[in-house]
Amino acid sequence: MVWQAIARKEVRGLIKPRRRRAGLALVALVFVLGGYLLPTTTASPETADLAPYLTGAVTLVLPLFGLLLGYKTIVSERESGRILLLLSLPHSRLEAVFGKFLGRGGALALVVTIGVVLASALVAYPFGSLQLGVMLAYLLVTLVYGLAFVSIGMSLSTFTRSGQRATAATFGVFFVFVVLWTELRAPFRIALDYLGLAGDGLPDWALFVYGLEPGMCYSRAVRAFFAGSEQGAYLGPDAPFYLGEWVALIVLLCWVVVPVAAGYRRFEVTDL
Amino acid sequence: MAAIEAHNLTKRYGTLTAVDRVDLTVEEGEIFGFLGPNGAGKSTMINMLLDFARPTDGRVEVFGMDCQRQSVATRERMGVLPEGYEVYDPLTGRQHIQFAMESKRVDGDPMDVLDRVGIADAADRAAGGYSKGMAQRLVLGMALVGEPDLLLLDEPTTGLDPNGAKAMREILTEENERGATIFFSSHILEQVEAICDRVGILSDGEVVAVDTIEGLRSAAKSGTKLLITVDDLDVVDLDAIEAVEGADSAWIDDERLAVNCSSAAKIDVLVALNDSGADVLDFTVEEPSLEDLFVEYTGGRS
């Protein structure tokens, strides 16, 4: 496998434009800023406090930059003809998709890691404390969440030949998942009620479906793992296991794997 | 084993047949020119060799390996200059060659390659700022990495000035002497004429002729025209000349004898003339240009 060559080239090209570097630095900055501000709100902050404190910012910034990193990967290479150069060399299309995902996901993972580590240090010094295990767990969950959007962006990039359409679809996904989703709960319940499938609240299976959105999964996992929350329709004592944080984590992992895999399958069977 | 072998290769886009049941064999060590007007199907054919496009029917092999099922293995033995590519704008020329070396898993100094294609002085500039000709040289350099057994070039002289085209020809000749098979498409006839061992002419998706340039000339109806100066035109028997096999017509043209004949019949005409008692003082041969042949084979759509 020579996908390393593609990933390396991808990173080299990615970090070259200053605008792109600035954007990536912004991601790390969000975490650092959180680490800087958190100690002003509480007397002896712990690493675990960072996670719920940052959820609002993270669920805005990571979808944005994840999608931005992913959505042009294939379609712009196709439109411009750079893909011909790539696939003239002995690479399979699988290596091309995998190498690009690795390069772009790796770039995002790097800045998130830098951000989380610096933020944890700021929380710990001088009055707080550092829990290394917690930091690693938080980093891991957050990385999975960010990579899910790189994956979604890349899949959008493989399903169309038109860059404009990919852009529109990306904007649509961002709008629905990040802006609109929390507002959809009520209409969803009313619609199910109309069909005679729901009463005053959503039934468990409907909660599961509604909770599949990556942001929902992420904040659920953060609340359960790092804030110790045991309340609400998802994490409360009466909720079935499939509404819990572990299943949310598995769903997040699926968001990383499934979109890019589906995109690859689509890309594999079409002419360039 | 043949370098390229296509059997019944067909590609249809909806109702349009871009490549129509092509059978073609390119032997190892040849320089093969693939000639045809724009839109004849040359690029589609090359795209199927590279698995950029999948055949609707038939198959194509490179060194006995199926270009679709063993696509990576076939491309491991190829160096490719595709058409309609774009370079990676932010990466330098050196990084491009480096990438090709990593992809083909060969070691070496990228500068040697850049030197060979004549853009060493631009090695550390972003390729986005290269001219079309420099980009073309760069991608040729990428194709040369790893001494490929087959060089596949789609319209290689696009964007090159005459010097660049000459340098390209010299590199291709060197590569061929090293043992590489060279397959390139072009709609520019002089280039094909200059270096090709054999030529295939594609028209409307069909291969209408495959032969050496010499062979194409002698097979073409518009044959060779001989203009012969003899000491005494009166002893020349036009009927006897026309009776020579391969000779088409003979007439007196401006104090000289003019004969239309196939390329192979030239000597026979001169011998017949000698036999009839005329002394040949001088003669010139007007071969049909490749352009004439091309127009003849493709029905004038160039």
UniProtKB/TrEMBL annotation, chain B:
Highest taxon of source: Archaea
InterPro entries given in the database record: AAA+_ATPase (IPR003593), ABC_transporter-like_ATP-bd (IPR003439), ABC_transporter-like_CS (IPR017871), P-loop_NTPase (IPR027417)
Ranges where the ABC transporter domain occurs: 4-229
Keywords assigned by UniProt, alphabetized: ATP-binding, Nucleotide-binding, Transport
GO terms of molecular function: ATP binding; ATP hydrolysis activity
SMART domains documented for this protein: AAA (SM00382)
Family statement drawn from the similarity comment of this UniProt entry: Belongs to the ABC transporter superfamily.
Protein name: ABC transporter ATP-binding protein
Native source organism of the sequence: Halapricum salinum
